[in-house]
Amino acid sequence: MKLLLAIVNNDDSARAAAALTEHGIFVTKLSTTGGFLMVGNTTLLIGTEDEKVNEVKEILKTHCTTRKSAPSPTESLGRGLKHGSLPAEVKVGGATVFVLDVLDTIKI
Ligand code: 2BA
Question: Could you tell me the domains of the chain?
Answer without folding.
Answer: 2-67+94-101 (3.30.70.120)
